[in-house]
Amino acid sequence: MTAPLFHLPYARLADAQPGTRVVLDGAEGRHAATVRRIGVGEQVLLADGTGAVATTTVAETGRDELVLLVESVDRSPSPATTFVLVQALAKDGRDLQAVEAATELGVDRVLPWQAERSIVRWRGDRAAKAHAKWVSATVAAAKQSRRATVPEVGDVVGLDGLVAVAGDAAATLVLHEEAEQPIGAVELPAAGEVLVVVGPEGGISPAELAALRAAGATDVRLGSTVLRSSTAGPAALAVLLARSRWSGTKDEAAVGGAP
């Protein structure tokens, strides 16, 4: 079985080398020592969320911490082409489900979108709490899937903000049930950001679709069925990643094996 993976603050693995002793403390250390009861001699993976993963062995245990001896450090290069899930806010937690699944699959960034037909609204304190929940979900999903990187969760954007991001992207793919072009036929750029835009329960409005097309977006379909907001984004990412990162060597984001 693959060793369990825990996250450290970004700076604490920056200078780690074989033989370095690292203390896993805080919430992660408490979970490892008290809940998982990881003991001396067991192997543990440490990730800093930016691509560095250390393989370590437990040298000492404490009530709320582990003292780890670094055996090796693997630093994954950043991919030339990155994938961004633009997820419209959706009810019943379907947007959060999409974020979790997309993280496991290997998405590089997540952008919350306050779409015209989104029933859920992020305002004031609710926006901050909801954003923090999405960040926590990406960290948990990255740990579960043994990812070396944790995708960034951007600030929520409206249509104007999304159009600006789409204008700077290498490609923007808008999932739409009436699109003629299948997503599998889209030519992917060799470098840059690829946006995958998913609408809310009520779908993307004609005005939104027109604005995104004007910014250079291409509307694509996944198949003959209409998928829920929680499913569409991860399904699209699976198709795109299968054509790019999964088609050769092991995905740079996966530590414990190819998905």
TrEMBL record:
GO MF term list: methyltransferase activity
Catalysed reaction, written as an equation: uridine(1498) in 16S rRNA + S-adenosyl-L-methionine = N(3)-methyluridine(1498) in 16S rRNA + S-adenosyl-L-homocysteine + H(+)
Primary location recorded for the protein, binned into one broad class: cytoplasm
Subcellular compartments: Cytoplasm
Chain's role: Specifically methylates the N3 position of the uracil ring of uridine 1498 (m3U1498) in 16S rRNA. Acts on the fully assembled 30S ribosomal subunit.
PANTHER family: 16S RRNA (URACIL(1498)-N(3))-METHYLTRANSFERASE, RIBOSOMAL RNA SMALL SUBUNIT METHYLTRANSFERASE E
Protein name according to UniProt: Ribosomal RNA small subunit methyltransferase E
Originating organism: Barrientosiimonas endolithica
Taxonomic lineage: Bacteria, Bacillati, Actinomycetota, Actinomycetes, Micrococcales
